[in-house]
Specification:
Blueprint (H helix, E strand, L loop, with lengths): L3 E4 L2 E4 L4 E7 L8 E7 L6 E7 L2 E5 L7 E6 L4 E6 L8 E10 L3 E5 L3 E6 L1
Parallel strand pairs: 2-11
Antiparallel strand pairs: 1-3, 3-8, 4-5, 4-9, 5-6, 7-8, 9-10, 9-11
Length: 118
């Protein structure tokens, strides 16, 4: 059973930085899509940044030029470097991975909380 485990969340002042990590227990090389989503209280879960097989990284307009997604398969880990954080970035951040072959399988982490204070 593949597990995704996030870490790196916390409380930071506006303008600060955090780096989130997502460790994939197995099979990271077989994941066709990997990315980060977030969900603020009372809002829908939204895409933050994502890798797909045939395209470079894509970002939500709200985080472009501030956040950077990266992936190190040798460490079985995906990262989200967040800079110039704003209070509106406050949310639970979730790691996501998808494998598609004979069937499509979706994996989610448990989430890590990011809180940006003014």
């Amino acid at each position: 059973q593949v597990q995704l485990v996030e870490s790196g969340g916390g409380l930071v002042q506006a303008g600060g930085s955090l780096r989130l990590s997502c460790v994939v227990s197995e099979g990271i090389d077989s994941m066709n899509i990997m990315g980060w989503y977030r969900q603020a209280p009372g809002k829908e879960r939204e895409l933050v940044a994502i890798f797909t097989d045939d395209r470079g990284p894509r970002y939500a307009d709200s985080v472009r030029a501030r956040f950077t997604i990266s992936r190190d398969n040798t460490k079985k880990t995906m990262y989200l470097q967040m800079t110039s954080l704003r209070p509106e970035d406050t949310a639970a951040y979730y790691c996501y991975a998808q494998h598609y072959g004979e069937r499509t399988i979706h994996y989610w982490g448990q989430g890590t909380q990011v809180t940006v204070s003014t």
